[in-house]
Design goal:
mainly alpha; 446 residues; potassium:chloride symporter activity
Amino acid sequence: MFEKFSEIPKNLSPPAILAFSFAILIFIGSVLLYLPFAHVGKLSYLNSLFTATSAVCVTGLTVVDTGTKFTFWGQVIIVFLIQLGGLGLMTVSTVVLLLLGKSPSIKGRLVLQNSLTYSPTKDIFSLVKIILLFTFATELIGALILGAYWHRFYPLSKAIFYGIFHAISAFCNAGFSLFTTNLEEFSANYTIVLTIASLLILGGLGFLVIYEIFLCLYAKKTHFSLHTKLTLITTLYLILGGTALFFFFEKANVLKGFSLTYKIINSFFQAVTPRTAGFNTLPIAHLTDATLFLLIILMFIGASPGSCGGGIKTTTFAVFLSFIKNKLQGREKVHILFRTLPNETVQRAITVATLSGVLVAICTILLLLTQRYGIPHSSENSSFLEYLFEIASAFGTVGLSMGKTPTLNCWGKITLSLLMFIGRVGPLTVAHLVKIEKVTPPYQYS
């Protein structure tokens, strides 16, 4: 199987191959989860397909309870899909080929670069090795901490599995949990909360950022690239700003009556998780409308390029804001961190942000049509914000939910599945597959 990646068809572009690899992995996962040994009772193929899509696209949205509906082997399949989806099938395939003493083709390297958003080719294998080493080392440390805590309540084997499952789910920004209420019962256990939050942040920074940090620490690299600086600064601002706003919006609601430490730590956690994974320590459906809209914005922004998360990405958000700022100041060029950005970079950021906004709007309309057709807004249980929340969660491959996803009909589940796929591979990748023909006008207006 892996040797086939050294013979990638020449007529397929790297973005097409990347999307195709995720689609194949989703199909294989859906078939495995549909088999009787993987679940308890009846499970429709659509629900198994939705679960596989959510796992491979490291989202975390679920239509059935992961901890009770799937058997041990079903849960093993899900965590493998999360790991493969987080790292990327091309990354894993490259490692296997290297272990077999083979080398991927030139196109295989280009596909790998596309999946990692990494440009130079000469250090691509060093990057892959560091990615694998850092990923497994971080997940192992997280699993040991989580497993040691859960061993207080469960047998050793179950505690170890729970630790491994949640560590992988957190680092890969998936948000799948084996607990029915996610992490709500651990909201006062700061070891669990901070461990999961740390894994989420590290998994959401992006492999290129991790690679540069590694070079700075061990290879005596003297400075970070603009990409890494922008990612780290934007991530810090989003976490601090999100924490402060969540604390302010919820101090008289779900945080009322708790200690200051509890309020700060859970506000911090709920500011981290919307941009990466669907873990929650507080009941999402009980949050205020202002907080829910804040979470929608954070989910739309998402994680960083080359990471396991989705959304428009932190760097795109930063460039887009810089574009607006520079235009208001009357500048023709976009300047950020004492650097002038190429027009191509700026145009790409604008395109991604605009395309993503249009996509979220269209999918929200589709979901409202398929779930509430003919029902007036003035009726009881108006659900506009709830459905917009689910759409933003799917696009950002986050997984936070207000409880609407399990109640969706088949068209709603298909809509979210497609959106999770687009959110994982990227809207520009999907747009590339459409192959819109470029038309040159015969004349120009003076």
